[in-house]
Amino acid sequence: MSAWPRRAATAALLVASLAGTAAASQPLAHLPVLGGVATARRAQLASALARALEGAGHDALDGARLSDDAAAAEHRRRADALVASGRSLAEQVHYEAALRTLAAAEREARAGLALFVAPRLLAEICFYRGIALLPTDRAEGTRSLVQSFQLHPERTLVASERSPKLERAIARARAEARVAPPLRPSDEETSLAARALGVERLVLLRVSGAGGREEARLARFDLRQPRWREARAIGWSASADEAALVAVLRGAFDEILPAKRGVARPRPARSPGAPRRTLPLVLAGLGGAALASGAVLLVLARGRENAAQGLADQTPPVEYEPRVREIEEAGRRYDAAGIACLVAGGAAVVVATAVWLLRPEPSRPRLSVGPGGIRVALSWR
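^ that's the sequence the OP posted. Answer follows.
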């Protein structure tokens, strides 16, 4: 199939995927898994990632469609030719020329989205760049070798005339790659991938594994604001099946993806002690307000009393004027209301204090060792 029909078919497929009702959200592209895991395991992780996306209510486009982009494929073909030349120069110990050639190869490879589509191509570049750098910059050379084994952990090296010192450096880099943090593409590479797929959001799973356990980072990239939003580290046994992976990944999506309209997310369970912690605070607030109101009313009552006394001193002592009686009645009402507020407020504060002191403590994990191994228990006291 020529490049034009293939690109037209890809564009038509993307348009069909993006079409739908007005309420539908834009599809997400899930990119191939990056990290030091075997090829078969990478395929299983990528499948679990797609299933978890769909189960969370998001339409997913497979990031492997990046291989259909003709312009990117041309960049990768040029990178292949440059890698062959750089490898030859490195093996002939022409390290400076090899580094220049490999730098050009890396630019072409990254423009060709090799990190997502052809990680082994980048692994070759990193490997021979590391060999060329080791004599003059050991730290940078080792870092490049580690990246090579991260990109292609199953790489086998043919016997050669390398020195024992170089062989030891390669062996150390292979060991470091097993425990190194997962690789992450640059913002520029990810933006190119998003444009090639015709989407504005990408989901990437980066995995590293060692000692029978795999650690992963799930991240989302937004093209409008080119930056990564990453979920917390998650992990599982290296032997976990796809169903278990889907369950773990679906929970991580809550941190980096907004809920799609019409898809209900489970609400977090409320702590059984939450009402016990809230009630005393509410009672204390109401009690404080009642005490303050009572104090204000008593001050008003004292003012009315003084006003009535002052007016009575200006009248004959035999009989008060009606105005004096009116003021005295208002003072007595304020006095009664103020006392009632003080009593109610004091009672509320006492009850709030009692409830606060008797509330249960938050749950605390307790470890216990028994015949079945280590157990963790949560208890309320």
